[in-house]
Every structure is written in C-alpha cells, then in structure tokens.
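User: My instructor asked us to take a sequence, write out its structure as tokens, and then describe one feature of it. I'm not sure where to start. Here is the sequence I was given:
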Amino acid sequence: MRHRLSAILAVFLLLSAGAAPAAAATGTTHAQSNASQIDSPTCSFPVTVTDATGENVTVTETPERVVTLSPSAAQTMWEIGARDQVVGVTQYAHYLDGASNRTNVSGTGDAYIDRETVVSLEPDLVLAPDTISSETVAKLRAANLTVYHYPSADSIATIKEQTHVTGALVGACDGANETVTEMESKLDTVRTAVDGEERPRAIYTFFGYTAGNNTFIDTIIETAGGTNVAAEAGIDGYAQINEETIVERNPEWIIRNSQDPTVPETAAYNSTDAVKNGNVIVLNYNYLNQPAPRVVQPITALAQAMHPEAFAAANATTTTDEPSATTTQANATTTSAAETTSGGSPGFGVIAALVGALAALATATRRLD
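Assistant: Let's start with the prediction itself. The structure tokens for your sequence are:
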C-alpha cells in the first residue's frame, strides 16, 4: 500500500500543473505559439523573458549555478548540454546521468520543494515548473533569487519553444538549437510513417485514470498515429476511467507507463481487442509525461508499435535512437532500450483527478500503522 501511494503521488507530481498562460518574451528571446515559426533566440546577455507569472525575468550573465525544481527542467538542461551548470535537482530527476551528485531540493509532505535548501545553494537562476505555486515562486524571489516560472506545456510545440527559452536563459542556445533540430527530425520520421495510415483506437490508463482532451498525452497518441478513445468519449483532462467506457470504446492498443505497467485483470479489459491481440505497450515513465525533449522517444516507440511496416519504411534512410518501451504482442515480448522506472515530473493538470485517490490511499495507509 505504501508503495502504491508513493507511486500515485509521483504520478500526481508528474502530471499536475496549472493552466498557466504561455510565457511571452522581450529583448533577445521570442516565444511563439507555433514551434515551426520559432526563431532561435540570440544568446547574448542580458536576456529578459516574461514568464508564466507575468514577471519579466532578467538574467544579466551566463548563470554558473542553476537549480531545477522539476525533472523536466533538469532533463532539458541535460539535453542542451548545460548539465554542468546545475547544482540542485528534485528527487524525481535522479534518473538522469549524474543527477544524484547534485543537491536534492525536494521537500516533504505538502512542501514539494525545500526553499531553505534552494536558497542555501545560492543559485544564479532557478527554473520552476508550473506545478510550483506562485506563492513559492514569490518567496524565492523575496530571497533575492532569479526565478523563471515555466508555463503549462500542452503541446510538443510548447516543449520546443521552452527548450529554446531555457537555452537563452542559461547561455546554451547552440545546444538548444541542436536539441530541437534532433526532436524535429525524429518527429518528421513519425509524421511520414503515420501519414495516410489507418489510426488504431488507443487509450492510456494508469492507476485507474486516463488522459482525454486537452492533455499532453492526447497529443502524444495523435502524433504517433493513433486515435485517443478517451478523448472521443468526451473525457476532458485527466479523469477516472470506468469499465463501461473501456468496453464501449474497445481500444485496439492500451498504453501503460513503467510505474504502472500491468493491465487490470478484469472482464472489461480482457474483452478489448488490445488485450486479445497482445497490443499493450509500456512506455518509459520519465519520458512519457515530462514536457521535455526526450518525449520524442515514447512518441517514436508508440508509432513504431502501432505502424511497424510504415515506420520501418519511413525510417529506412533515417537514423534514430532506440525508443524506450516494452511492447507485448501476441505471444512475444519485445523490449528496446532499458527503462528507468524511478522518477516523475510535472506535466499538466490532473490535480483534481488524483486528490481523491491520494486521500483514499493515505487513509488506507494510516490504517496499516
């Protein structure tokens, strides 16, 4: 029970985020809603960016000490080649190579971040996800820290945009440009593969919940060439999924994450085409829900699983990394790159959906004391 509570809390942190407005930029950084139109920011200081709180965040010189308050921000720093500037990370970022050598800034209980630890690190810049409250951000700023508060990431375009913004803030524009270019190359392969293909019915389920309209997971499924049946069923955001909907929508693919990989053993799930045909794919927990560059890996893995022949043809002249996924298909299990199942990250709004589950599990846990 304790393990299950911890896992759901991790998913809560991973997916929870407010519907913050997109960041706007001034000075040398230009943030736009359409990633294909994003101009790479000029790497020069000072740089000023308007963040999700409406604050004009100014960085006067290359920050030598950066604290990340989310694993997605840490992952972005790693991907753009700026890991050496990071001095503090949360416990959920420890899947990143070398992150365990940084100071853990996680808090306990309702305090997801230990502000005193953050302040003690004397960072030049703090990168805060949208899951961090405006109150916490204000208190960090009151301690004379420069804090950039990320907007909610609801699309791949936003991830690419914020990768550029992060690069500009930390003086790693070249690394950000290379990262976004690599992302786009892999996504182009996926788009080519799924173009004109029949879209199988798919659903993502985790701990009894699913992801419907207006979720990043919906974007992942659609980009990979599937149809999100939770969205088709009218589910908005993250919500509990009942078995009647599972039976009615009869998904051809069931997507799980590596923290909750097993499909429920119920008549409803067993009746689906997905289970009957062994079409269950387990995607890397740390990459699936984190609004950061490695999200292209689960997108690629899902596209490859749902459209193997088309993907192979599209990929014939393109070199891509092995996606992190485990696919169970009709009497055979195929496992590509090894997964790390620890961790989690802010993604976006499932707070209301998971509060009930957290409360119920907390009560059950107390009964075991």
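For the description part of your assignment, you could build on this observation: The chain has two domains: 19-171, 189-344. Try explaining in your own words what that tells you about the chain.
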